[in-house]
Amino acid sequence: MNSVFMLLVVREARLLCRRPAELANPLVFFAIVIALFPLAVGPQTQLLQSLSPGLVWVAALLAVLLSLDGLFRSDFEDGSLEQWVLSLHPLPILVLAKVAAHWLFSGLALVVLSPLLALMLGLPARCLPVLLASLLLGTPILSLLGAIGAALTVGLKRGGLLLALLILPLYIPVLILGSGALQASLQGLPVAGHLLWLASLTALTVTLTPFAIAAGLKISVSE
């Protein structure tokens, strides 16, 4: 199973490299939202600094959500999903490899880009390690939870709005913990509690969501 998992991750990575627009769109959206926000509220450093934890996390959440609508669509259209369902290999392992490749090329790139954009909002450099840690723990949760909605709506022609309605309520705990960790760091308070809760949620989602994604794909393929 380890070899199957790695082979599928490599396959998905090659496919994503052939579609650079799908990789660039979430990052461009993330950068534009944060770059435009100071123009809307003004150049007050203190105000931007106080708003930066929530703004960075909301922008990251929406950027991840933007990239999830087409997560399984190409596989659904070319019949690959049917082969996955009929395969002798466990479907949860296959979808976990798919989501892992998606996160490596979109979520991880978003994490790398975030410190530069956070500095534009006046976030102190001492808060950047907490920002990176919270996003590293939180973005996999966003991708895995979003993949459940993508699996359920993959057969719909315009499932983007329905995907957002299904998934956004599930994102609320991650948003609270991620922005809370950054806010605590900004105020000089301990952040270990927030990060430990995020790590617990990450472990829980990695363990359970592949089964929910697999069930959603089976429902979509059978319709």
TrEMBL record:
<keyword id="KW-0997">Cell inner membrane</keyword>
<protein>
    <recommendedName>
        <fullName>Heme exporter protein B</fullName>
    </recommendedName>
</protein>
<comment type="similarity">
    <text>Belongs to the CcmB/CycW/HelB family.</text>
</comment>
<dbReference type="Pfam" id="PF03379">
    <property type="entry name" value="CcmB"/>
</dbReference>
<feature type="transmembrane region" description="Helical">
    <location>
        <begin position="93"/>
        <end position="118"/>
    </location>
</feature>
<comment type="function">
    <text>Required for the export of heme to the periplasm for the biogenesis of c-type cytochromes.</text>
</comment>
<keyword id="KW-0201">Cytochrome c-type biogenesis</keyword>
<dbReference type="GO" id="GO:0015232">
    <property type="term" value="F:heme transmembrane transporter activity"/>
</dbReference>
<dbReference type="InterPro" id="IPR003544">
    <property type="entry name" value="Cyt_c_biogenesis_CcmB"/>
</dbReference>
<keyword id="KW-1003">Cell membrane</keyword>
<feature type="transmembrane region" description="Helical">
    <location>
        <begin position="130"/>
        <end position="154"/>
    </location>
</feature>
<dbReference type="InterPro" id="IPR026031">
    <property type="entry name" value="Cyt_c_CcmB_bac"/>
</dbReference>
<feature type="transmembrane region" description="Helical">
    <location>
        <begin position="21"/>
        <end position="42"/>
    </location>
</feature>
<keyword id="KW-0472">Membrane</keyword>
<dbReference type="GO" id="GO:0005886">
    <property type="term" value="C:plasma membrane"/>
</dbReference>
<feature type="transmembrane region" description="Helical">
    <location>
        <begin position="161"/>
        <end position="182"/>
    </location>
</feature>
<dbReference type="GO" id="GO:0017004">
    <property type="term" value="P:cytochrome complex assembly"/>
</dbReference>
<keyword id="KW-0812">Transmembrane</keyword>
<dbReference type="GO" id="GO:1903607">
    <property type="term" value="P:cytochrome c biosynthetic process"/>
</dbReference>
<keyword id="KW-0813">Transport</keyword>
<feature type="transmembrane region" description="Helical">
    <location>
        <begin position="194"/>
        <end position="217"/>
    </location>
</feature>
<keyword id="KW-1133">Transmembrane helix</keyword>
